[in-house]
Design goal:
Layout lengths: L1 H11 L4 H31 L7 E7 L2 E2 L2 H4 L10 E2 H13 L3 E2 L14 E8 L5 H10 L3 E5 L1 H6 L4 H12 L3 H11 L4 H12 L16 H7 L5 E5 L12 H19 L5 E3 L7 H9 L4 E3 L6 E2 L8 E3 L2 E2 L5 H10 L3 H22 L1
Parallel strand pairs: 1-5, 1-12, 2-3, 4-5, 5-6, 6-7, 8-9, 9-11
Antiparallel strand pairs: 1-10
Length: about 350
């Protein structure tokens, strides 16, 4: 990397744009890593004096692994999926710091000052049953947001198909991510066509209990558990900003109908696939009667939340880092990345101020 910088400088007398971008990436990575290490020691000290009441921390998961050996099978895109043991540590951490776990339905109740936490799972993987065992053990609730077409058709999730088949072909992870990000810009019929052309019809068949979605009858049985709530994640895992207003309405209403048939009640909450939404998406979401909509903005939710018909809630993405390292950041309202961005922004603002007075 250094030789690239030096070559550009010797040839042109200045650093090339690509070299500067790479340098910025390295600097950013170093800065975030420093914050992670420094925060591990500083956060507990700050949290001893910082009040954590009147806040709700929402976390989103996708799947769980029984063990790291299961992860190595490459039946599923690992994303930031934890093992069951890590999930238990996650719950234990927040309970030990006096957090009470809630469901979306609980937010309409008269809540005390808190602090509160919420566990959410996106997509509807059968491997979420591993989490249910821990939820029952700790007496903690969670909401599972399901993409209903995958449920009713026992259909593999398209990003897992890309990951497991490309991995089997020896494709590196950067190219896999590029392919997945390209498909996120398309509507679901085009994604399905792409899968068919590149991998064949059999690719939609799950490989095991690791990558398969819940079956319809399993959802019906699951909601009998008082610790579980089922939420909407669209019918086709549709990234809704890619769709027209009528198409958004259809995605939500069809999914609601399936969920109602399976559970006996309409969902009150929705998690936007990929976290993407705009004003049109919010309008249709409210028109469809949802009370809570979940994004993937990594921030705290502060009380009081207001009396809006639709309440939008921020969520932190969980990761495989030791909970004792990243939990403190979330409790203070940050992640290492967002804290780094804030420090850079503040430094830039201060620099401009100093120029004015100089």
């Amino acid at each position: 990397m250094f030789s690239e910088f030096l070559f550009c400088f010797l040839v042109t007398g200045k650093f090339c744009n690509n070299s500067m971008k790479n340098l910025r990436t390295i600097v950013d990575g170093f800065g975030i890593s420093f914050i992670e290490r420094f925060g591990y020691f500083l956060n507990p000290l700050v949290l001893k004096i910082k009040k954590e009441n009147k806040q709700l921390l929402v976390f989103y998961f996708h799947g769980l692994f029984e063990s790291y050996k299961q992860k190595d099978l490459n039946h599923i895109d690992p994303q930031t999926n934890m093992t069951v043991e890590q999930f238990a540590d996650f719950i234990d951490y927040f309970q030990n710091h006096n957090y009470t776990f809630l469901l979306p339905e609980d937010l309409k109740s008269d809540l005390e000052d808190g602090p509160y936490a919420m566990i959410t799972f996106d997509d509807g993987y059968f491997n979420n049953t591993l989490a249910v065992q821990m939820l029952n053990k700790y007496k903690v609730p969670a909401v599972i947001f399901i993409s209903t077409k995958n449920i009713t058709e026992n259909k593999s999730y398209w990003w897992d198909i890309i990951y497991k088949y490309r991995t089997k072909q020896g494709t590196n992870i950067e190219k896999i991510r590029d392919e997945q990000n390209f498909l996120k810009k398309l509507k679901y019929p085009l994604i399905d066509d792409y899968i068919l052309k590149n991998f064949g019809k059999k690719a939609f068949t799950p490989w095991s209990d690791i990558d398969r979605p819940f079956k319809s009858e399993e959802i019906t049985e699951l909601v009998k558990n008082p610790n579980i709530s089922i939420g909407n994640h669209t019918h086709n895992h549709a990234i809704l900003i890619n769709y027209s207003k009528e198409e958004i309405k259809e995605e939500l209403s069809v999914s609601n109908k399936v969920i109602s048939d399976l559970t006996g009640s309409m969902p009150v909450s929705i998690a936007f696939p990929n976290g993407n939404y705009n004003q049109q998406v919010l309008e249709v979401t409210e028109e469809e009667g949802f009370q809570y909509a979940f994004s993937i903005e990594p921030r705290r939710n502060l009380f009081p939340m207001g009396d809006n018909k639709l309440t939008c809630l921020n969520r932190y993405m969980t990761n495989t880092t030791n909970i004792n390292k990243f939990g403190g950041f979330c409790r203070m309202g940050y992640t290492p990345n967002t804290l780094y961005d804030k420090l850079i922004l503040n430094a830039s603002f201060l620099k401009k101020k100093l120029k004015i007075f100089s």
